[in-house]
Amino acid sequence: MAVTMKGRDFVSLRDFSREEIEQLLETASAMKMRQKAGMVDRPLEGKTLGMIFTKPSTRTRISFEVGIWQLGGVGLFLSADELQLRRGETIEDTAMVLSRYLNGIMIRTYDHEDVVDLAENSTIPVINGLTDLLHPCQAASDLLTIREKKGDLSGLKLAFVGDGDNNMVHSLLFAAAKMGMDACVGSPAGYEPKKEIMDMAQEEALRTGSELRAVNDPVEAVTGADIVYADVWASMGAEEERENRLRVMDPFQVNDELWEHVASEAVFMHCLPAHRGEEVTDEIIDSPASVVFDQAENRLHMQKAIMALVM
Fold it and tell me: Which of 64, 102, 121, 194 qualifies as a FRET site for 261, CA 20 to 30 Å off?
């Protein structure tokens, strides 16, 4: 039986059950299939999504703006410069005002607590488009892509190599634990996932039988992996550390040598934008194993599913 998510915030995958995530996947898959067949889904006719951006974006803005339009609604782009947040209005007041005008809010920002505060003070659903801590929309979209390529998610091994203290890693740990996937994060010492995130993900893994690990050896991380995932080594806001990170992360580059250790028919994933020649070589990201542009497309379909179910 389908579970209702209407009125729910989408802040973290940890907040959703396996059954609810499966419903998201089914909804996104059905919407994608109908769109490809030229059919129209307009469940949000007459509804408006406010899209707050304090952190720049390509895929997030376009996929949400196109997605809400395809669902029959309207998206309003709200940059930080266009709101009163920069002039001292509290997030609490902003949340209460926007709740009187809109049917949903998507926010992409730096501080995760800003999203939490916005959700706690809004009377409409708030969707986390990205924070420095979590990236749940991307992780949900990645589950859709993995399911399309690999079928049943349970029992698959996902390996992430690079900076483990990363919003993608944190959300992928929650995603893997919820869906019964194993996950291994390979990162240099000092760049492991946040302990509190790993501990929370491990609690869920105990219920689903997932094995979650963090190691400091890239070969150990990817050995036998069905999915190998990379992300930029210097995320937005960490550019001043770039030179040091390039040096420390260099052994964790996904290249032909590392790829020799993965499972047969493994796929390569990256949330984009990619810094080719740094975290991944052209030979890997442009290979038949790469599904990065399927991931990018699936952001549209998954975010439509999220909006349709919560709004």
Answer: 194
Counting the structural domains of the chain, the total is 2
In this structure, the number of other CB atoms found within 10 A of the CB of residue 40 comes to: 9
Token pair listed for 228: 């190998």
pLDDT at 80 exceeding the cut of 80: no
Are residues 56 and 110 both part of a single domain?
Answer: yes
CA-CA distances (angstroms) from residue 181 to 105, 146, 196, 212, 231? Answer: 31, 11, 20, 9, 20
Q: Which of 23, 112, 231, 253 is catalytic?
A: 231
* In contact, 78 and 84? CB cutoff 8 Å: no
Our answer to whether residue 137 is catalytic in this structure is no
> Which CATH number goes with the domain that contains 66?
3.40.50.1370
Q: Residue 10 carries which side chain, given as an amino acid letter?
A: F
Residue 8 near residue 38 (C-beta atoms within 8 A): no
Rounded CA-CA distance 254/283 in Å is 10
Let me know if 135 is a catalytic residue.
yes
Clarify whether 231 is annotated catalytic.
Answer: yes
Q: Any catalytic annotation for residue 184?
A: no
Point out which residues pair with 157 in neighbouring strands.
182
Catalytic residue among 23, 132, 142, 271: 271
Q: Is 209 helix (H, G, I), strand (E, B) or coil?
A: coil
pLDDT, position 86: 56
271 tagged catalytic: yes
Which entry of 8, 14, 59, 135 is annotated as an active-site residue?
Answer: 135
Q: Are the C-beta atoms of residues 10 and 135 closer than 8 Å to each other? A: no
Provide the residue range defining the domain that includes 186. 138-295
pLDDT for 192-216, tens place per residue? Answer: 999 999 999 999 999 999 999 999 9
What is the structure's pLDDT at 79? 87
**Per-residue model confidence (pLDDT) at position 56:** 85
